[in-house]
Design goal:
This protein is mainly alpha-helical. The chain folds into 2 domains: 61 residues; 89 residues. It is built from 4 helices and no strands. The chain starts with 7 loop residues before the first helix and ends with a helix. Keywords: Membrane, Transmembrane, Transmembrane helix.
């Protein structure tokens, strides 16, 4: 499909959205406002004008969305979203792993420079620090993945809300 072309289901969806918006406008202006006008007077005109402006902006917004991204949201939105989140998790985990490895190497070099390598106590301390560094690495990876999952869940809720609007 070229940009600007619609498949038949997309075209029907556009017509349905316009029908819903227009029917709500018609019901409000021609059914609700006249009895309200009898009771409340001139304030009704302001409400009618405000609702008409909202109606016009809704139509313009929908036209702009269909012009910039015809047929949005795409059918494979979930697939692209899932692939993107996996890439984000991999990148964040890789960055955290690099930071942890640099930190661990620095700590190990400091311990090796300060103490004699052949001393048994030093070997035990180095092993202890190595175990702590490994545990720290896995904790940070778990923490990073957990934060990414929470962020992705929040983004998923936003995407679902956007999809539900249309």
């Amino acid at each position: 499909m070229f940009k600007g072309q619609h498949q038949l289901p997309d075209f029907i969806a556009v017509i349905l959205v316009y029908g819903i918006i227009f029917s709500e406008y018609y019901a409000f202006v021609f059914i609700f406002l006249p009895p309200f006008l009898n009771k409340h007077g001139s304030i009704t005109y302001l409400i009618g004008i405000e609702f008409t402006i909202i109606f016009i902006f809704l139509n313009l917004a929908y036209i702009m969305i269909q012009y910039t991204k015809p047929g949005y949201p795409p059918k494979d939105l979930a697939k692209h979203y899932h692939e993107r989140t996996l890439e984000d998790i991999k990148q964040r985990t890789k960055k955290m792993t690099e930071k942890i490895n640099k930190h661990r190497q620095r700590r190990m070099q400091n311990h090796i420079e300060l103490h004699d390598e052949n001393d048994d106590e030093i070997v035990i301390k180095q092993f202890y620090y190595m175990v702590l560094a490994i545990l720290f690495k896995h904790y940070n990876q778990f923490h990073t993945v957990l934060n990414v999952i929470i962020q992705n869940y929040q983004e998923l809720i936003i995407v679902k809300n956007v999809i539900n609007v249309y």
